[in-house]
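Table 4 source record.
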Amino acid sequence: MSSLLDQFRQATLPPHAEAFRQDVKAFLATDLPAAPADVRARSWLAFDAEFSRRLAARGWVGVTLPRAYGGAELDAFSRYVLVEELLAAGAPVGAHWIADRQSGPLILKFGTEAQKAHYLSRICRGEIFFGIGMSEPNAGSDLASVGSRASPNGDGTWTLNGRKIWTTNGHQCDYVIALVRTSGSAADRHKGLSQFIVDLKLPGVTVRPIVDLTGDAHFSEIFFDNVQLPTDALVGEEGQGWAQVNAELAFERSGPERIYSSIVLLDIWLRELRQQKAGLLPLETLGRLVAHLATLRQLSISVTARLAAGESPVVEAALVKDIGTEFEQAIPTLVEAALGADPLTPPDPELLRTTAYVAAMAPTFSLRGGTREILRGMIARGLGLR
């Protein structure tokens, strides 16, 4: 067996995390706004600042951050349970999602003490929301070809020019952490890249929402035109952005959201099958999906155990993300086929709307957080094949 597969050690959620699950379920039973399945299917893209603040009031935004900075100081297993329950219920978590998952932990790991004091407690109170500034037009998932540049002004400040795209809810966020070039050229690839916290209200910043084919505007493009960044906008060390981004992406790629994007659809289809006393064929399909889900969940928990141990399982997270998005994309395809195979039984309109939405969004599942090609290149490298 390869050394990569050896890294997927058997792991289970500890008892304290399962006990925490009951608290989360009780909260959702009273505080989650009622919504049909096609709205709940938007879960981690849906921006609802009031819901995020109610969650924050319970101490469940920035759950893994230290109490000294306003966090709940829970472990990665408890966060896994929280995320799992929120997504399974279709809660609108898009407002605080990026800050909780990536920006807060990134600032905690690489930020200065002043940056931690300034940002983390406000993240935990749900007062400020973050977006990701990695992708650029014409670069796709090749982050190393980033063209946006921050030039030093000689007094510790920087002038930022360039453009970012596909920033989730960027037009509703307060800050974005941008990966930009601070030295060298695109030919230098991984060298000369740095990360900056950019206040989206600064002069020279323009944020435009992008309307997708479902009619939603969850994504944005951001333009930087001679934006003046203060000295304390730099996160970590100048020129170390590539290593920092890869550590950040390990949080993004291994979480339950890379498995559960279609879970609301799967759930409402199960409800429909129960009501209609379905035949053998759709039940076989459902059984395969549930078995696939159980296996993926176990792999995801295994990666969470590595994160909880303080490790950085970058390649293993890429593997979970790749097969996780294949699973997410298969669900709407198989549900559509099952509905089409029985045209004499009209499906529930809510199920039809949910299927249509998830099917329209499914192609994006293998793009966000790194395309399939990028991930498989990383996996091949982890196996010693490149």
